[in-house]
Design brief:
Layout: H1 2-16, E1 30-40, H2 60-72, E2 78-86, H3 90-104, E3 109-114, E4 116-117, H4 119-125, E5 130-133, E6 138-139, E7 146-147, H5 152-158, E8 161-167, H6 175-178, H7 184-209, H8 217-225, E9 229-230, H9 231-237, E10 242-243, H10 246-261, E11 265-269, H11 287-292, E12 305-312, E13 315-316, E14 330-331, H12 332-344, E15 348-357, E16 359-361, H13 362-373, E17 379-388, H14 390-395, E18 400-403, E19 408-410, E20 414-420, H15 422-427, H16 452-479, H17 486-492, E21 497-499, H18 500-506, E22 511-512, H19 515-525, E23 535-539, H20 545-557, H21 568-582, E24 588-591, E25 597-598
Parallel strand pairs: 1-2, 1-11, 2-3, 3-5, 4-6, 5-10, 12-15, 12-23, 13-14, 15-17, 17-18, 17-19, 18-22
Antiparallel strand pairs: 6-9, 7-25, 8-20, 16-24, 19-21, 20-24
Helix pairs in contact: 2-3, 3-4, 12-13
Length: 599
């Protein structure tokens, strides 16, 4: 009897114990918020495999790929974008906003946090579901301005003279060296472009994004005229959705997402999708030698691929190299090697040329165009922020051209000349005595401006280059199926610049779309499966640490100058000289009018 009672008590005790082996475990659900920081210029280039240089920054496509990865990741429930000083052009802004919009189509929400939003930070944030600013932050919504810096008076003070010629009334690339302010044609076309950006890239984007506020275009323009805004003023005006410091905002999102997803736990995934770079232990004496080794090349798979060839920077002859402000040039030799590599690789089924260039050398542009034109594989072009003049020239070889609505393109025209510094040298006691044979033997002497005979000869050279540009542009448009006469093209040429929207309306490009759209079109032309993302071969490959070091040393020997770290204000003013100086040995240029900053 006693044994039976104890048995009953024991059975009751055991039944009351938690976590019995025969009972199913209840797993707690975790809601995950992916964090990605967007800041800086985010250039266009193939990713670097270098252990040191590859860790400094991510390129534009890498950032967008992380957003796309979060969209497809079933473990990610929402996206938190930290916007901190975007210095990108209007084309990249379009593509970024489209990528965010595609993410939202998955049903997941995107939250934007910015502390002191500039215009492009804010416009990117408007693509999200919610915009938050801290109480002490502000919104720099003040409109747009196009700034052009001129160097004529500087040249006068040092005794130098720019002697430049141009083909096309609107081809004003050399004006910063010749004038103190914009010419009438230059002001006319820049005003046309600025108006397009203001009305469609700024005002209409705010109207569409703040639908709940029922803003009209005129109301938005009034709000712009009354900017900038403190956080509270921006909230009151309906320009943002919430005021909170970063930690408090994450806590608010945590509570909302847990409730929405009926989750028990919350995880904030900082720097979601960012590739972990191996840190180099400099306390190890052999670590430095690791930097000097050439990065090992990843073995290419046998899977079908699309080659993405980046043309980012001023176009020059020879190999790609750095400029005064560390901007990479588009060297014709480097580009031709990349195109041939893609052509020879049997796994590459199509080529997409990704262009972010204001142009440059006419010769280099034509050499690149020729190599692309003779490619046996399908070639498409995808324009980023800028694909003008020489940047447009190399795109003409494509079967189809894609551009963003706000891409700056066109500028079909030619400019050429030289900088005569004889007066500068005289000021510091350097004189030159010359003996010549031939009427035009001194055509590119830097001592004196052109003689009448030299000017006539250079004009003939430039006219022929301009005629080639027009002929090839017309042939490219016909190949793409566009019906256009030479007279119609002339009305669009002459150095005129256009936004992507305007270029599409005028038939200079074929489609408004992103790099992803161009890749999809390339996939179709190459008969690759539409439901499977193809592998990408991204070219030209970035230089390693040792290559860059040797290039710098060689550059110093060749007299190439690298500018020291300057205040941002000085860099913005002087950066326009960079492309012009890189082309000083080239007789004829296909260059965008000015370095245009529209902020």
């Amino acid at each position: 009897m006693l044994r039976r009672r104890y048995g009953i008590v024991l059975a009751v005790f055991v039944a009351a114990l938690p976590g019995r082996a025969d009972e199913p475990k209840v797993e707690k659900k975790t809601v995950r918020l992916a964090h990605i920081k967007l800041s800086g210029s985010m250039g266009e280039a193939a990713p670097s495999s270098d252990p040191l240089l590859g860790s400094f920054s991510e390129h534009f496509k890498s950032k967008l790929d992380r957003i796309r990865k979060a969209r497809k990741d079933a473990n990610i429930h929402a996206l938190y974008l930290q916007l901190d000083g975007l210095h990108i052009g209007w084309g990249k802004l379009d593509e970024l906003c489209q990528t965010i919009a595609d993410f939202r189509k998955s049903g997941k929400k995107v939250y934007a946090y910015l502390e002191s939003g500039n215009t492009k930070d804010y416009l990117a944030a408007l693509a999200c579901d919610e915009v938050c600013i801290p109480e002490s932050g502000w919104l720099m919504l003040t409109g747009l301005s196009a700034e052009v810096t001129f160097y004529k008076e500087l040249l006068d003070k040092i005794g130098a003279q720019a002697d430049m010629l141009q083909m096309g009334d609107y081809k004003s690339a050399a004006e910063p060296l010749l004038r103190k302010k914009m010419s009438k044609p230059a002001r006319e076309q820049l005003t046309r472009v600025l108006d397009d950006y203001f009305e469609k890239s700024l005002v209409q984007r705010i109207v569409r994004s703040r639908r709940g506020k029922n803003f009209t275009a005129e109301q938005v323009k009034k709000l712009i005229d009354e900017g900038p805004y403190t956080a509270r003023a921006a909230l009151k005006a309906g320009l943002i959705d919430r005021i909170a410091y970063a930690d408090a905002y994450r806590d608010q999102l945590r509570d909302a997402l847990k409730k929405q997803q009926k989750a028990d736990l919350f995880a904030f995934i900082k720097d979601y999708g960012k590739e972990d770079k191996k840190e180099i232990d400099f306390s190890n004496p052999f670590a430095f030698f690791k930097l000097l080794t050439t990065p090992s090349k990843a073995k290419s798979s046998s899977n079908p691929k699309i080659a993405v060839i980046y043309a980012s920077g001023v176009i020059t002859t020879g190999k790609s190299e750095g400029g005064l402000f560390e901007d990479e040039t588009v060297g014709s030799t480097t580009m031709i090697e990349a195109i041939r590599q893609a052509e020879k690789d049997e796994t590459v089924k199509a080529i997409v040329l990704r262009v972010d260039s204001p142009g440059g050398s006419a010769l280099a542009s034509d050499l690149i165009w020729n190599e692309l034109k003779h490619a046996k594989k399908p070639v498409l072009a995808s324009m980023s922020d800028t694909a003008a003049s020489g940047g447009y020239y190399i795109s003409m070889a494509a079967q189809k051209i894609f551009a963003e609505p706000s891409t700056l393109t066109g500028s079909i025209g030619v400019v050429g000349g030289k900088l005569a510094i004889g007066g500068t040298l005289n000021k510091i006691g350097i004189t030159t005595d010359v003996i010549r044979r031939g009427a035009n033997a001194g055509i590119f002497s830097t001592d004196q401006p052109f003689s009448d005979s030299e000017r006539k000869a250079l004009t003939a050279l430039m006219q022929d280059t301009y005629d080639q540009f027009l002929d090839k542009a017309l042939a490219g448009r016909h190949k793409a199926g566009k019906k256009m006469t030479r007279d119609e093209l002339l009305k669009l040429a002459g150095g005129r610049i256009w936004t992507g929207r305007q270029a599409k309306e005028n038939g200079l490009i074929d489609e408004l779309g992103t790099l992803q759209d161009a890749l999809a079109a390339a996939r179709a032309l190459a008969n690759l499966p539409a439901d499977k993302e193809p592998e990408l071969l991204q070219l030209p490959k970035s230089k390693g640490f040792l290559d860059s070091l040797l290039e710098d040393v060689g550059g110093l020997r060749a007299g190439r100058l690298r500018m020291p770290a300057l205040a941002p204000e000085w860099q913005r003013k002087l950066r326009g000289l960079d492309g012009l100086l890189q082309l000083r040995g080239e007789p004829v240029w296909l260059m965008l009018p000015y370095r245009v900053d529209i902020e």
